[in-house]
Amino acid sequence: MDRGVVTATRRPPDMTPLLRNALTAACAAAATLLAACRAGDTAPPPGASAAAPTAVASAPAPAASAVPITVSTVRAQRRDLPVLLSATGTVAALSSVDVRAQVTSVVTRVHIREGQFVRAGEPLFTLDSRGDDANVARARAQLAKDEVGLADAQRQLARSRELLAQNFVSQGAVDAAQTLVDSQAALVNADRAAVDAARVALSYARLTAPSAGRAGAINVFPGSSVQANQTALVTITQLDPIAVAFSLPQRHLADALAALEGGGATVRATLPENAGSLDGRLQFVDNAIDASSGTVKVKAVFDNRERKLWPGAFVDVAMTVRTLKDAVVIPQAALIQSARGTIVYAVDEGRAVLRPVQLIQAQGDEAAVSGVRPGERIVLDGRQNLRPGAPVVERAREAASRPASGASGAAGSRADVASGAASRERSVQP
Description:
The chain has about 425 residues and is an alpha+beta fold. Among the domains are: about 85-95 and about 240-325, Elongation Factor Tu (Ef-tu), domain 3 (Beta Barrel); about 95-125 and about 210-235, CATH 2.40.50.100; about 130-205, Helix Hairpins (Orthogonal Bundle). The chain is about 35% helix and about 35% strand. It is built from 8 helices and 22 strands. It has a 6-stranded antiparallel barrel. A hairpin with a 6-residue loop joins strand 12 and strand 13 (about 275-290). Helix 5 runs antiparallel to helix 6. The radius of gyration is 48 Å and the shape is rod-shaped. About 20% of the residues are buried.
């Protein structure tokens, strides 16, 4: 075959007119045969030369283009599509309190263990309170003494009034007795306040949980000396309910505020490594936008009875801000970005039909679009090989995961083989 090609290219120049005449005759015979085939006549017309098959083989493009392209399709659905805002959130406790001593003293007893869940008001630590006990006793003794003095002053006042009625004392003596009673009563009130103050100081020796939560690491032991308002004894962190903080772009601020005014939008927190998800409610939108990032901080609250959310952990957050009613939904993978805009291919009577569409909302793997009728079959796999009007063959959806280029590749291979054979026949035709 190769020697025939070389010989044809090395013929003397005087053979050129003969070659031109032979090619002209072959083209004329091919045109006659093609017209006969279109008219339904399968046999070659009389007088057709033997070179006609060679001329037909030299044009394999129509046969290759007629090979159907295998595609997979999905039907466009009309349904409600929730609009979600996705972000990465950080779990944060609603309250986390560092328990510190309010007096300088020594720890005498620790009532809890590290990591223990405590209730509000449950005792945590006991400090040395002997000095405060003595102060309370002293204040009570002073109160008792002044109460005795008040009682004596009241008796003197009553006696003075009896004597005044008998004209044995003057009014001035009665007024002096009344003054003594009033001053003694004020002194008793001061003593009672001193007793209350001593009791407050004594209460600092008994530390209780400010709220329900989980105790962290305990930093002191019995016998440890603590400084007033300096030494952190333990941290109590509230775990149920718990919050998830995340940031939203400022373009979604209006949606977040509308959702907050409507009672709080539903927020779903997805745990890493497929550990499940929890639903909560939007509770807080910050009053300012971060100028450095262009985002606004928001917070959602979740019930955490099973302790799935832990402070400091990262979770994927999705918040539903609104719902598109009766939207036409197709897979987002079916969309094609072309020079004329966004398009999809639909299947109608076994052929590909181009549909210009407008993207309304992209949500995950789905997209709400206009320009497609509900129930219409939309090409998902194999769309890269399609042209408007191309014949298609739909395959089962289960096989859609395999590449659709196999059929088109086989068709291209058959076309290449036919083209190569035709070129070899033309090379040996002379």
